[in-house]
Amino acid sequence: MKYKILSLALVASLTGCSDNKPTPSEVNIDTPTATEVDAAAAGFQLVYPETRKDGTVDTYFETLVGDPYRWLEDDRSDETAAWVAAQNAVTFGYLEQIPYREQIEQVLEKQIDYEKVSAPFIEGDFSYFYKNDGLQNQDVLYRQPLVNGKPEGDASVFLDPNKFSADGTTSLSGISFSKTGQLAAYQISEGGSDWRKIIIIDVKTLAQKGEPLVDVKFSGISWRGDEGFYYSSYDKPEGSELSAKTDQHKVYFHTLGTPQSADALIFGGTPEQKHRYVFAEVSEDGRYLSIGAAVSTSGNKLYIKDLSKPESQLVTVLDHTDSDTELLSSDGERLLLVTNLDAPNKRVVEVSFTDPAPANWKDLIPQTDNVLDVVTAGGSLFASYMVDAISQVKQFDMQGKLLREIALPGPGTASGFGGKAKQETVYYTFTNYKTPGTIFSLDVATGSSDVYRKSNSPFDPELYESEQVFYESKDGTKIPMIITYKKGTPRNGKTPTILYGYGGFNISLTPYFSSVNATWLELGGVYAVANLRGGGEYGKAWHDAGTKMQKQNVFDDFIAAAEYLIAEQYTSSDYLAIRGGSNGGLLVGAVMTQRPELFKVALPAVGVLDMLRYHTFTAGAGWAYDYGTSEDSKEMFDYLLGYSPVHNVTVGVNHPATLVTTGDHDDRVVPAHSFKFAAQLQEKQAGPNPVLIRIETKAGHGAGTPTSKIIEQYADIFGFTLYNMDVKSL
């Protein structure tokens, strides 16, 4: 089980862009009256829609807190819909007058328009891989016959998500094959929602088997033989399915040929088994079912059942949520677990199923100074370590004996390596901020790697520099940051720069290539990524140092990154933009209200921005490990109130030029966060910097965003950024 999918985060959050942009003449803005705002610095006269204020006041520990824009939380109301339309009309009216917006779009198309292919994976008699011809809205899943265990011959289309919907907004969000590889179940997301449908097909004929399963959320699909599979979901909430709270996750077993109403409830149906996130996975040998149960995005209980004995019960491995622990592999009664229990950087342990309590665990791969992630393939364990956010990979046998270190092309991120137990060849991808992903094949027996597929990207990495620096945060902590730019870029403080950060949920920002970021570099910009506390780059201690009442550390780390870039003359406050999505949107919202003079442009995407109420929407209560909640204690409430972006917009302050982005189908971080933050900024902004909100329709938290929308969105983001840095032409 990979518990990272519990996070609210998508590290590289995308919010897309509307195919049908409303214009002022097309939108009824009678409901919100207009307020004229001087935006002289941008050379454009803005008229913001006036946002109605109500008298909502909440009491927290005898403290009264106004919430005048509470009505914007109702995503089903006509008034909210009118407000969204009016805001989009103003936003797109502004964006469309930027003189080089179309030029940026052309550069984006050039950088994105090349054949992109994923590393292959083996299922049954085929090798599968994803491919995008260039500008296809969704990646297409192909398959290729296996000959002597290796893919050979012509590849053919297996699933084409571009045919799921006319506008490309229905995406393939996961697929799982039965143990024989003869059946497959795949999930689709409509309009970017986290609510999914599961469709079952015969792999040979591609014929659909039975009716789709509906109302599935935060779920894997794990097959038991070919008879059926385990999946997870919540009861459909009362009220809006896009914003109403979901709290009790349940595991079901679906037997092929039966209706969904007959699915067996396996775990989560009793008060004792109530958890916000529950996941089930069958071991590769088919013998064990493991169930992980969590109340937050960090820490899980673990239960295992012997499927070879029909009457067997779940055996408790861990009855607390003080660690992240999962079943890695099994061989008879021997279990291998990967855990951070008593090992903040993780370790692999072995134990017998007959008595799997932690007291009986024996280290197989002990903890080291670097964070461990491990997968199995070809009868080996492939251990990936993060060394200052850079990959190091070692191969062990199943008894924990070190076989070799895998030679990588250079500093960057190597991902993949997983596969079936009998595979002789595995695949991995290597990339960094200036190097498009190259796929390698690795011979498990010898550890030797060969280039399997080079990237066709038009981006030339030889023209760019990417350097890692370490700077001091406010409390003296050393923070790594990777800065990428075109060779010969002058250090004169006048280069447009985007500083990106996340800092939460144990998520690590490791170097990866992005055609979108390549466009920014091609335009002459600097792209900097800071590895803030709250992430997972240095293990659990690094994560915990950016949680709850230490969350300010994350903001201080980001502010110090900006100050470093300015001090070293990579840029200056007049040419510095900050960007982050989801938890990173919170990061941007917090620092732009704490140090508004430090940045010229702020780009918060799908952000968690109302820290007093985030836990009342969808699965937000599960983020309390990182944030705490306003109900926990007066001390916690006061701390959250002290940095909550919605509550810390100050009258009379000239905040940075701000483009808030969100999606109307975001049911992870509901768009009301962004709505209320934008309303506060527009009401209280002093000075000429524009404050706009761009609300994508038929889009969610980011996953599955069509390529066409990505191109439009980033043309707007980069155009807005450069325009407000007073860049006259490209």
Automatic annotation (TrEMBL):
EC number: 3.4.21.26
Domain Peptidase S9 prolyl oligopeptidase catalytic span(s) in chain numbering: 512-725
Membrane-spanning parts: none
Reaction catalysed by this enzyme: Hydrolysis of Pro-|-Xaa >> Ala-|-Xaa in oligopeptides
Pfam name, any one: Peptidase_S9
Keywords assigned: Hydrolase, Protease, Serine protease
Family, similarity comment: Belongs to the peptidase S9A family.
Name of the protein: prolyl oligopeptidase
The species this protein was found in: Corallincola spongiicola
